[in-house]
Amino acid sequence: MSLRDLALSPVYLAQAAAFIARTERLPEAAGPRTGQNGQGARMRLLVLGDSSGAGVGVAHQDQALIGQMLQHLAPVTSVRWQVRARSGATTAQARQMLQGAGMFDIAVLALGVNDVLRQTSARRFAKD
Fold first, then answer.
1. Does residue 17 fall inside a structural domain?
2. Global pTM?
3. Does residue 94 fall inside a structural domain?
4. 8 domain residue, yes or no
5. For residue range 10-46, what is the model confidence (pLDDT) as tens digits?
6. pLDDT of residue 97
7. Mind spelling out the 3-state secondary structure of 50-64?
8. Whole domain around residue 123: which residue ranges?
């Protein structure tokens, strides 16, 4: 970090805070967060994360990340799936969301943006 960046860091922080405050909060996608689709060999799938995992920006889970994955997986396998995601979640909070998730074969992690916005250190992010 340069001396100039250090001197301007209060300005950068104020700009970031103003940006976050002005950002519109969109609702999470409606629809079930667990289910079973398809037939054939069994797979247990978990989507864990933040707004992108929760389907923010689309109306229904069928259009969200899980819905798009099921569209491709269900024709060839039986998928027992669950979405454990929340808008604004950090990596540390996602770890807590894992409680009670049970076993899964594949996990899709949609995390990181909120850690950056909260200035989580790289060391803490890796630990979480």
1. no
2. 0.80
3. yes
4. no
5. 888 788 777 777 777 889 999 999 999 999 999 999 9
6. 95
7. CHHHHCCCCCECCCC
8. 28-127
